[in-house]
Amino acid sequence: MSEIDWHPPIEPYTSGMLAVGDGDEIYWEECGNPEGKPAVFLHGGPGGGLLPDSRRFFDPSGYRVVLFDQRNCGRSLPPAGDPKVSLENNTTPHLVADIERLRERLGIERWLVFGGSWGSTLGLAYAQAHPERVTELVLRGIWLVRPSDEAWGFTPAGAAHLFPAEWAAFRAAIPASEQDDLVAAYGRRITDPDPSVHIPAARAWMAWELSANTLLPVAPPDLEDATVLAFARITHHYISNGGFLPPEGLLAGVDRVRHIPAVIVNGRYDVKTPPDQAWDLHQAWPEAEFHIVEDAGHGGSEPGIRRLLVEATDRFLRPSARPASAE
């Protein structure tokens, strides 16, 4: 393994587009060992798309790794960066169905499911819908998308206390008369057909999202307008609809997956998805291995988080491996 606690960079050995209905196509790729243990990587956001380093959580000699861009983001089509593209058929049930279509398309019987942030949400939703298809779960930065979790991120009572300047900039992009509901106000602007309205709003939305992503500040990525708009549109779409989850939420369905070996990892200073969400999931699922990383925030690439995730996938390559509680 490399000196930075994850596996070396690797390129896909095959890729393609999969029609998933409703006029949508998702980009998918495979890397690693075609004869290896199947695993699927679920990216965050929602709307974040794949990054090359997403492949590096898996030992390429032992895993057949499947990665894909979720509907309307990354290389999937049509792109949400086009404001005329409808997101009506971009919901959690649609994404769960897309994962199943991809599994069937690739001829995979069962696979390890790996997801961080929104990927942890989608991974739990998929596993609860199709527990017979999941060998293990590796989940990072747990996001349950409950009303209290949303209030933490988008009201003055939450993360704003820790990032006051960034919160002030986020609020300043909206007139004072509309600041009582920032999510709704941003929604009106992000969905406005005029680029002079939706691009500044999308960039302000993404700036707030990225401000609390890691324990130590990192330079924001230089992204094209279309990429920023796709992220902002899709993320807002899910946040304003409760993640398209059932009213009882994901914790109510944990009994359907408690038999599946699982690892839960969260940064102590994760301001995006604070560790109470991971803790609540672990309380409902005590059999799952549970880790709080004392020197980390939200980012999956932060060293302590990265190391635990790679250790988990390496361990699950051994058929007899089972997590041990690590509270």
From TrEMBL:
Domain AB hydrolase-1, first and last residues per copy: 40-299
Protein's UniProt keywords contain Glycoprotein: no
EC number(s) from the headed UniProt entry: 3.4.11.5
Primary localization: cytoplasm
Pfam entry (one): Abhydrolase_1
GO molecular function list: aminopeptidase activity
InterPro entries in UniProt: AB_hydrolase_1 (IPR000073), AB_hydrolase_fold (IPR029058), Peptidase_S33 (IPR002410), Pro_iminopeptidase (IPR005944)
Family per similarity comment: Belongs to the peptidase S33 family.
PANTHER family (UniProt xref): PROLINE IMINOPEPTIDASE
Protein name: Proline iminopeptidase
Organism field: Sphaerisporangium dianthi
Name of the gene encoding the protein in the UniProt record: pip
